[in-house]
Amino acid sequence: MSDPTFGLSITRVDNEPRPAVGADLSVIGLVVTAPDADATRFPLNTPVLVFSDDATLEEDLGTTGSVAHQLDLINAQLGEFQVAARVVIVRADEGADDAATMTNLIEALDGLETSGAVLGVVPRLIGIPGFTYQQEEDIENPGVLLANPVIAALAGPLERMLAHAVVTGPHSTLQAFTDWRETIQSDRIIPVETWVKVGAAATVVDSVGSILGAGVRRDHEKQGRPFHSWANQPIQGIVGPNRPIGFSLTDGATEGQTILAANGGVILRGEAGVETAIASGGFVFVGTDNAGEDDVWRFYNVTRGRDYIHLLFLRTLRFYLGRFNLTGQTIEAVTNTMKMALRDLQADGDILGFKMGFSRDQNNPEQLRLGKFTIDFAAEEAPVLRYIGVRSARYRPALDALLDNLITQLDQAA
Predict the structure, then answer these.
(1) What is the phi-psi region of residue 8: left when phi exceeds 0, alpha when psi lies from -120 to 50, beta otherwise?
(2) Strands 376-381 and 86-92, sheet pairing
(3) Which residues of 356-393 are buried (b: 16+ CB within 10 A; e: fewer)?
(4) How confident is the model over 5-52, as pLDDT tens digits?
(5) If you ran DSSP here, which 8-state letter would residue 80 be given?
(6) What is the pLDDT of residue 1?
(7) Which among 193, 284, 195 is positioned nearest to 235, based on CA atoms?
(8) Cα 34 to Cα 105: distance, rounded to the nearest angstrom
(9) Inside any domain, residue 329
(10) In a domain, 4, yes or no
């Protein structure tokens, strides 16, 4: 349409910074066995999105297999004004033994990765209850335990989905946990030692649902942003941990502190009247670390937070691609969009600070001519507070003040 000779022309100018669009990192993904499930609703190796409060789930999933109790544990952790969690369930075939079942669970991970394309939602809190603690002895090296095959297969899918997985290990002895922990290295895996007891029969089940539920509650409390740890959070819906674990806030030479030092998480019992206990009552999850090797990215709230920032940039900046020519105004709009997003995160205490730059070192005329430019950014996610040191000493000046006051009073009396 050409401009009129006598009239008006209105052109929309769309070069302002874009509002940042965050991603939901609180969708749970469960890969489970459910032998009694309705195969029509839950076909094998196929992702199915459900809401955890769906009353039909118990009938359609059944009450056997590794799925048992997990949705109840998730629901028990939800916070104020939370009705349900979104859960993607992938059902794997139950094999003749644990080895066969784990093979099927690994195959089902492929189905979990298709969730985005099939369901329009990507689960980023993953659990595979009941099958992450088993280890077999290396027949060629007696006495050496092999890694759990399900955990060994997890790292790739987690990286591709930008997800984190809670995995539970041997929950019998410290040595068993240590042997298991030594076979894991991934900053997307969150290792936990403790299982839980549920119901009137005190049935021992995998605690993964309760830990994931605590994570969903914590994200909800922080407006959906995953920059906060789940440590020191109460675990509801259980009658106790599967075994007592010794713990003291002031003594590192306890079983619980030893597990924490190995990057594991534990569920502890509160103790009334014991100041060095984690709480006065109830059951509390303590765990801050992932199983990565790099201490710069040690805390899972930091790695999840960085995922949130990266996904925020992906969802927001893709709008510019192909719609705009590469001009100074476009570069400025992109950088201002990123700055506004990071500024809001800093204002809310999710990050401590950030820096952005458009440098000539990373950009040259040839790259610009090809429609490419690079922006550097750095941000510092707030670390979780896990240690407070208090130095206690006597205060001699108080005695000087006391003497001064006494002398003044005596002089006045005289």
Answers:
(1) beta
(2) unpaired
(3) eeeeeeeeeeeeeeeeebebeeebebbebeeeeeeeee
(4) 888 878 777 767 778 888 999 999 999 999 999 999 999 999 999 999
(5) T
(6) 63
(7) 284
(8) 12
(9) yes
(10) no
pLDDT of 347 > 90? The answer is: yes
Cα 177 to Cα 203, 205, 260, 398, distances in angstroms: 21, 17, 11, 51
5/184 Cα distance (integer angstroms)? 73
Which domain covers residue 325, as residue numbers?
321-381
Is residue 191 in some structural domain? yes
- Residue 9 has a pLDDT of 79
pTM: 0.93
Q: Give the model's pLDDT for residue 201.
A: 96
Q: Which amino acid is at 272?
A: A
CA dist list (Å): 341 to 14, 26, 219, 355, 378? 18, 20, 18, 12, 13
Q: Which helix (H) or strand (E) holds 191?
A: strand 189-192
Identify whether the C-beta of residue 167 lies closer than 8 Å to the C-beta of residue 125: no
Query: Cα-flanking dihedrals φ and ψ of residue 7, to 5°?
Result: 170, -150
- When pLDDT is averaged across residues 350-368 and rounded to a whole number, the result is 93
Q: Count how many domains the chain has.
A: 2
Pick from 194, 261, 206: nearest CA to 74: 206
97 & 179 share domain = yes
The C-alpha atoms of residue 298 and residue 188 are separated, in whole angstroms, by 10
Among 209, 189, 214, which Cα is nearest to 300's? 189
In a domain, 11, yes or no: no
Cβ 354 vs Cβ 379: under 8 Å: yes
State mean pLDDT over 206-211: 97
Please, are residues 316 and 341 in contact by the beta-carbon 8 Å criterion?
A: yes
Q: How far is CA 202 from the centre of its chain?
A: 28
Q: Are strands 203-205 and 196-198 parallel, antiparallel or unpaired?
A: antiparallel
Report in angstroms the alpha-carbon separations of 254 from 116, 168, 249.
43, 20, 10
Answer yes or no: do 287 and 345 share one domain: no
219 and 282 fall within a common domain: yes
Q: From 302, 332, 359, give the residue that closes a domain.
A: 302
Same domain? 83 vs 159: yes
Same domain, 67 and 119: yes
